[in-house]
Amino acid sequence: LKHLSVIQCDQLLCIENLTLTAGSSLNLTKLCVGVCCVDDCFALLDGRLKQLNTFIVDICDMDDELSSVYDMDDLPNMKCFSLTCRCETNQYDTQVLPLLHRMIKLEELTLNVINYERTTLIDGTQINNNILVHMPCLRKFTFYISTEVELHHITHHLSNEDIQRTFTNIGYQQVSCILNYMVDNIMCHIFSLPFAFDCLEYIGNAFPPVHFSCVRELTVHDETPFEHEFFIRIARFFPLLKKLSVVNFKPQSQMKHHLICHNNELCTTVVYPHLISLCLEYTYIHYTEQFLNQNKTHLPQLTTLSVDYSKLRFVTQNFTRNATRRNCARLQQIDFKKIIVHTKEFYDYFPLL
After folding, report:
1. 3-5/199-203 β-pairing
2. What's this model's pTM, rounded to 2 decimal places?
């Protein structure tokens, strides 16, 4: 056996407590796997897979410290490495970077890393100093790195141009970034172009005119309202979107909201041809109207909806409104925060529930 892929299995691989001889192989050169924790990743690279040169790993749980002592020798045979993980505080610095530094002859690197509660942003300068200078053989680097930092850690206001400049300074041109300022924190997304990943989280009103053709799952969140034009842009630049979550408690512009509701000629209908799942649980009621009103949005494949029950009942006029019926017709699952005893009108309105 030379190639093994177990990343699609229902259960994650857990080998941190196995002996060195367990799970060992002298022939395996490519491994694609999802593991329970970072210990499992280090265990797989502690010498039991001598010939491994391609390693694709999705780590479910990053820990602050390793639970065991592992062989930390260099990995000169490793040519291609792909990592997907979520880190908190300094786990990126203490777990991810030391792992990368062992791959001294790496030629292809893919990073899909989400960082929460860091004290510094990750930009081009950090990537160059902490990754690129340690990999002289690297010829392909594909990445999406998202960083959340509380605003009190930021000494001065940063713009997209500031972040972009850190990549230009190291000779990286095919890179873009998204900065999303919130009340207490900032989300910084940096990524290589074209965007190669299927999930993008917590972008706001301002994002670059990049076609995110690989993205299937998106979360949008902002402290300023999402107007109708914003959702037109989302449909345009995320053409194959399947899952969308909206987080916004600000009402849409009252004037625009009134005009769109009562003068359909002023409203271009937004079409999401592939969207099957929509979460409006953490939104102002205008967004329930925005997505369910067929004059504003067309959702031909929508089967799953998360929404506040009272908002749904109001927007659908107690499950009788024709303008919202079409987008509700294919729903097979509606998730509410609390258990509701539904009426006959409810089930008539949602015939597939």
Report:
1. unpaired
2. 0.90
Instruction: Specify whether the CB–CB gap between 87 and 59 falls below 8 A.
Output: no
What region, left, alpha or beta, does residue 58 occupy, with left being phi > 0 and alpha being psi -120 to 50 degrees? Answer: beta
Label residue 283 exposed, middle or buried (CB < 10 Å: 0-12, 13-18, 19+): buried
What is the biggest distance separating any 2 CA atoms in the chain, rounded to whole angstroms?
Answer: 71
What is the per-residue pLDDT across 242-261, written as a single tens digit (0 to 9) for each? 999 999 999 998 645 554 45
- How buried is 262 (Cβ within 10 angstroms: 0-12 exposed, 13-18 middle, 19+ buried)? exposed
pLDDT tens, position by position, 83-119: 999 999 999 999 999 999 999 999 999 999 999 999 9
Model confidence pLDDT, tens digit, residues 21-47: 555 677 899 999 998 888 888 888 988
In the structure encoding, which two tokens stand for residue 60, read together?
């479910």
Nearest alpha-carbon partner for 299 in 321, 275, 331 = 275
Q: In this structure, are residues 229 and 268 in contact, taking their beta carbons and an 8 Å threshold?
A: no
- Could you give the count of Cα atoms lying within 13 Å of 96 in the half-sphere of its Cβ? 29
**Strand 175-181 versus strand 185-192 pairing type:** antiparallel
- Any residues with CB less than 8 A from the CB of 287 and at least 6 apart, and which? 226, 246, 248, 252, 280
Q: What is the DSSP secondary-structure string of 204-250?
A: -S---S---TT--EEEEE-SS---HHHHHHHHHH-TT--EEEEEE-S
Q: How far apart are CA 19 and CA 22, in angstroms?
A: 5
List the structure tokens of 174: 């095919």
